[in-house]
Amino acid sequence: MTAKIIDGTAVAERMRTALAEDVERFKAQFGYAPALGAVLAGDDPASAQYVRMKRRACEKIGIESITHEMDANSTQAEVEAAVRSLNDDPRVHGILVQLPLPAQLDEEPVLALVSLDKDVDGFHPINIGKLAMKGREPTFTPATPTGCMVLLEDAGVEIAGANAVVIGRSNIVGMPVALMLTRANATVTLCHSRTRDIPAIVRQADIVIAAIGKPEYVKADWLKPGAAVIDVGTNKIDDPDTAKGYRFVGDVDFEAAKEVAGAITKVPGGVGPMTITMLLQNTVKAAWRLTAEKVV
Amino acid sequence: MTAKIIDGTAVAERMRTALAEDVERFKAQFGYAPALGAVLAGDDPASAQYVRMKRRACEKIGIESITHEMDANSTQAEVEAAVRSLNDDPRVHGILVQLPLPAQLDEEPVLALVSLDKDVDGFHPINIGKLAMKGREPTFTPATPTGCMVLLEDAGVEIAGANAVVIGRSNIVGMPVALMLTRANATVTLCHSRTRDIPAIVRQADIVIAAIGKPEYVKADWLKPGAAVIDVGTNKIDDPDTAKGYRFVGDVDFEAAKEVAGAITKVPGGVGPMTITMLLQNTVKAAWRLTAEKVV
Q1: Assigned CATH topology for domain A143-272
Q2: Domains A31-115 and A143-272 share a fold
Q3: pLDDT tens-digit readout, B244-266
Q4: Is CATH 3.40.50.10860 the right assignment for the domain spanning B31-115?
Q5: Which of A99, A131, A133 is the mutation pick for testing B, counting most B CBs within 10 A?
Q6: Domain ranges, ordered by start, for chain A
Q7: What is the C-alpha separation between A153 and A161, in angstroms, rounded?
Q8: A132: nearest CB among B132, B135, B161
Q9: Predicted ipTM?
Q10: How many Å separate Cα A100 from the centre of its chain?
Q11: B68 to each of B74, B121, B161, how far by Cα in Å?
Q12: Is A183's Cβ below 8 Å from some Cβ in B?
């Protein structure tokens, strides 16, 4: 058996085309574009690259970007002031604070400052709290976990009643995707660095979300035949056979796993393209919400 | 093998004695008592009784109670005004809104209104969100789940690395206790009404938290020998052999389960007495926090 390959690039492309049309409607109605404000503090090359990618993705579908590029030595007060100015700027509909912040800064108060109406990253504790609670609706949900859920649904994976295993309990992927799967009526087991026997737990899973950041960590013989596997990892490994001398692999041993799984994402081309797409979707949603409020 | 019986009444008693001493210290220092404000809307007898029990427990250790008893026909605005007045009252350190509210009222905005500094029930979405997030500390954690954790620790149960199964995903017990167990490095599986095979999942658990509200639902032969079992249920069942014609049982078939488990709580006398104790503890903590802020 060879798994169905879940093509994140194709799903993301389809969604971005629809979003571009939605942005056109927005512009036609209001005469200006939805806008995403970003705070980028410091000179971490990966962060800078990530912000550039987001900006390009915004431009492509007609969303404006306003980036506060800040010095690596920025103070807490300066970064908080940047967030406040984006909160107060009526042209800005969504705000993203690129993490990690430089070491001297405290991330928690910066993120807590982001206006709930503009929290397109979905990381405000109120949004995470509502995600955990029955009968509550977060205004925005975090991009990567939402992307995982969209890919599962798009692939026709039955979530309600399924046994789902999430490997990794990070604030940005593992924990929120576990909460989202529980909301969707899966029975979720959340594994992490202190879990005793991850392979034994994965073997019982109908759905596996690998978000632990270890190259090709999940092996084919851990998988229940037919399981749906979403690989969130993007790990750079040396590979002298490539022109660049390296390549990216996921947290799952893809080549072997695809012979056991029922459906599986590739790396790259799986969750990656979905993350930015969900951020774009949240930004367009924020623009409609904020503008509708103004009109009323 | 007969399980160690985890005696919630004894643990609660010990904690309340220590809390009474803490309240004495507080009074000696500031000349007034910590105070818990409660909003009780409607005439649900169970809610009224629960508020009375809380008030008596407060009195016993020297905490003052201020209860807003409100009509079953109270409007949203009236109940919200009651919460606001408790927020603004400097004599009040903790606020509890007795749930469920009458059907015409929307619980979410009422709970969201409770000042974070007085959220001794720990149900504000910010506190739940922080409970879910690594590197965040909720100001207060909900009473019943905290009581479960204290009982496990008191019984010497190793939580880190253990496989824990939580049955029931309610906002007040199941979900927050799952988050607390994950924070304590257990590997948590959260089961609920849509879970396919609860017995098979429970069989793998070193720690079982039963919070599903079904009398004697968890059977002895579901348990891994030696497992620690915390029974959160309190279910009233008919029993013609008792003077009252009924008695209370938990969510676990205690008599049979105690022959398999390593440690187990009784009902009554397990989690029940801990719930109010943790509310008292949160109230005393709130009083110190708010007063220290005033002094500084």
Answers
A1: Rossmann fold (3.40.50)
A2: yes
A3: 999 999 999 999 999 999 999 99
A4: yes
A5: A133
A6: 31-115, 143-272
A7: 14
A8: B132
A9: 0.95
A10: 15
A11: 12, 16, 45
A12: no
